[in-house]
Design brief:
This protein is mostly helical and 126 residues long. 75% of the residues lie in helices and 0% in strands. It has a domain of 49 residues. The chain is built from 5 helices and no strands.
Length: 126
């Protein structure tokens, strides 16, 4: 097939090129999937979108950079189930105090409205 015989160094060259190609493919897969893996590890609510944008960003650099930044964006999603027991108890107590304060505020407003209606009714009788 070839007009010359392949020697030892030719096969070494092919092996090195194959290894470099495999390393480049592995690096591309790891790098393009990085934003998605970071987003999933941080429980990002839009982790799938970050992952897709990271892979699509391989065609152009700017979307990949945006996906990488987006993966680190702080989220307002808090998984309370994973808090320690003491933290869960403190959150429950704080919520109960807030509910109790809201209930007391409603009672005060209702009492004020009853007095206003009673005063208005007294004035209308006179």
């Amino acid at each position: 097939m070839l007009s010359f015989p392949l020697g030892f160094w030719d096969y070494v060259t092919f092996l090195v090129l194959f290894i470099l190609g495999a390393a480049a493919l592995t690096a591309a897969v790891l790098l393009l999937g990085l934003p998605g893996r970071i987003a999933r590890a941080r429980n990002h609510p839009e982790a799938d979108a970050v992952n897709i944008m990271g892979w699509a960003g391989g065609l152009a650099v700017v979307p990949w950079i945006q996906a990488f930044i987006w993966a680190f964006k702080p989220t307002s999603v808090i998984d309370v189930r994973r808090f320690p027991q003491e933290e869960q108890q403190a959150i429950r107590e704080e919520a109960a105090k807030r509910d109790q304060a809201a209930g007391a505020g409603k009672e005060r407003r209702a009492s004020k409205e009853r007095r206003a209606h009673a005063t208005a009714a007294d004035h209308s009788r006179e």
